[in-house]
Amino acid sequence: MSEASISIEYAMEKASGPHFSGFRTPTATSVSSTTFSDANVPREPFVIGVSGGTASGKTTVCDMIIQQLHDHRVVLVNQDSFYRGLNSEELKRVHEYNFDHPDAFDTEQLLECIKKLKIGHSVQVPVYDFKLHRRSSDSFRQVNASDVIILEGILVFHDQRVRNLMNMKIFVDADADVRLARRIRRDTVERGRDVNSVLEQYAKFVKPAFDDFVLPSKKYADVIIPRGGDNHVAIDLIVQHIRTKLGQHDLCKIYPNVYVIQSTFQIRGMHTLIRDRDISKHDFVFYSDRLIRLVVEHGLGHLPFTEKQVVTPTATVYTGVDFCKKLCGVSIVRR
Questions:
Q1: Counting beta carbons within 10 angstroms of the beta carbon of residue 10, is it exposed (0 to 12), middle (13 to 18) or buried (19 or more)?
Q2: Which has the closest alpha carbon to 168: 229, 232, 238?
Q3: What does the buried/exposed string (b/e) look like for 301-314 if buried means 16 or more CB atoms within 10 Å of the residue's CB?
Q4: Which of 61, 217, 327, 328 has the lowest CB atom count within 10 Å?
Q5: What residue stretches are annotated with the Phosphoribulokinase/uridine kinase domain (predicted)?
Q6: Could you tell me the sign of the dihedral formed by the alpha carbons of 275, 276, 281, 287, in that order?
Q7: Quick one: residue 45, left, alpha or beta (phi over 0 = left, psi -120 to 50 = alpha)?
């Protein structure tokens, strides 16, 4: 694997962290870097934010992720659906309206929508007409709770409250000339605009808004994908990471009291060694014992304890802890 691929995968592993699927981060006093599931904590979907400049390929990236996650329920929520409808005065001067400014979106409604989806409720997403610049008054898009929620839009990283709802943040990067060409084609074909109006809007609103709001939000991204949908390596790594997280989620739903040790490169390396059919008997036993030792150490960390004082061989008093229960055995469940 190339150095770039490793850095992307490491960034993704750091991005979603142990808070996914109701996992709780260990306290500061915990020695182990592990996570565990609480049976009383509701399971939450994996929320992915996808941002980038206009026509950077965000929708293509989202579609590719959805296609590869065909064995899981995935829903796509577009920030464009939450444009505010223009009033009569704004419609008269529609060419002076900045659709790329944060104030053009109903962020409060977007927040409410994602929060409901995270707790398992269905929502009705508005349908926005880009030719009339209004929301449809009699139709909505029904979105049901799913394993993965993808929130896509140019300014989904701008508001901290929206960012805090995400488990992973992806920024799709593309050359400015490529984005402009795509925008001209999209707006003339799909939104009924002429080339001159598209270029005027781009120079007056789109480019300044990108520099002021979109580009600065790039720093919040956990993963940056150059070339958008053409970067198959990055998208494959993202999908692999999501599948890993969803697999942990399913395991915890089957076994509500299970404790999942967070995957590290050390653990993955030892799993790779013991699964190699060419490994020697000595190495197989050595690395298997090492893995079992990590499981036992993690199990001991969850036993209740009380303080206890003992006298050392040098006649000094040492204050330590005494386990309240004895460890009878450890069960290892393979997925």
A1: exposed
A2: 238
A3: eeeeeeeeeeeeee
A4: 328
A5: 47-233
A6: negative
A7: beta
What is the number of other CB atoms lying within 10 angstroms of the CB of residue 221?
21
Alpha-carbon dihedral sign for residues 22, 28, 34, 36? negative
User: What sign has the CA pseudo-torsion 168, 174, 179, 182?
Assistant: negative
Domain definitions of the chain by residue range? 3-251, 264-323
The contacts found for 123-128 with CB under 8 angstroms, 24 or more apart, are 125/77, 125/81, 126/81, 126/82, 127/81, 128/80, 128/81, 128/82, 128/83, 128/85
pLDDT in tens, 143-171: 998 889 999 999 999 999 999 999 999 99
Residue 85 contacts residue 256 (beta carbons within 8 Å):
no
Q: Side by side, which strands form the sheet with 168-173? A: 74-78, 148-152, 46-52, 168-173, 223-226
Fold topology of 3-251: Rossmann fold (3.40.50)
Give SS3 for 316. coil
pLDDT in tens, 193-232: 889 988 998 999 999 999 999 999 999 999 999 988 889 9
| Model pLDDT for residues 15-71, shown as the tens digit of each residue | 443 333 333 333 333 333 333 334 344 467 899 999 999 989 999 999 999 988 876
Query: What's this model's pTM, rounded to 2 decimal places?
Result: 0.62
